[in-house]
Design a protein that fits this description.
With 80 residues, the protein is of the alpha+beta class. It has one domain: S16 Ribosomal Protein, Chain: A (2-Layer Sandwich), CATH 3.30.1320.10. It has two helices and five strands. Strand 1 (2-8) and strand 2 form a beta hairpin. The longest helix is centred in the last third of the chain and has 9 residues, at 52-60. The termini are far apart.
């Protein structure tokens, strides 16, 4: 089963995340299918970027977002 979740790539004490599509059983920073966005929680307000078309594509294919990614998608809708 595919999932859309965060993969940490930041330094120690400086978190930065990629939003990735990956198999549910893979490790957090393991192999992934595609990068569909980024999340920087240290910026005020937190910087979130998505490729909304690709996120919708993967959701249509049955990928399940993690709780955190689901809330990020809801709070950052596609610009009109």
């Amino acid at each position: 089963m595919l999932t859309i979740r965060l993969a940490r790539i930041g330094k120690k004490k400086r978190p930065f995340y990629r939003v990735v599509v990956t198999e549910k059983t893979r490790p957090r920073n393991g192999r992934f299918v595609e990068i569909v966005g980024t999340y920087d929680p240290l910026k005020k307000p937190a910087a979130v970027q998505f490729d909304h078309d690709r996120v919708q594509y993967w959701l249509g294919k049955g990928a399940q977002p993690s709780d955190t990614v689901r809330s990020l998608i809801r709070s950052n809708p596609k610009p009109a």
